[in-house]
Description:
This protein is mainly alpha-helical. It contains seven helices and no strands. Helix 3 runs antiparallel to helix 6. The longest helix has 24 residues, at 83-106.
Amino acid sequence: MFLSLVSALVIATQTPPPAQDVGVISTAPGVDVVEAERFREAVAYANPMPRGAPESDYPLVAWCEALVNGHVALGETLTNGDPLDLDIIRLGKLEASDFRAALIAAEPRQTAASRAAAAAAAAEASARWTSLVGQEEAVRSQAFGLFFGLPGRCEHAARRIREHITTPPATPADVGLE
């Protein structure tokens, strides 16, 4: 017993070795982060957009933000307190916040026409949820659960407007897909 206590004391008083900065930890060794992002962006911009989605990045981000905010608002009307629903609402708020930050950062660089297109796109996307808010809870819950998310292009468009990227996005041919 005495030996165990002494051993524990010796271990507890030893100074651990200094932490080493190992840099970026890659979960896919050999994959360049910039190239991976460029690849995902090329795929996102190559895929067709849903009907009614704007083609230009700034109005698209406003449309995406409004869809997410509408989905969150609909979820907040549900009374079941389902943990998965609550997590989806939490994540939706984070995503909407990211879109809002991108829109704010890019707004000074937008033309009046672009800002008007963004406002119209956001109003159209918001209207998709408005009719559901007054429905029975079962209908609201089903609509909340059936929302399939956003086009992948939303996150890339938000990054592009936030960072003031004006070059065209990579194409599938640029990243070796064609």
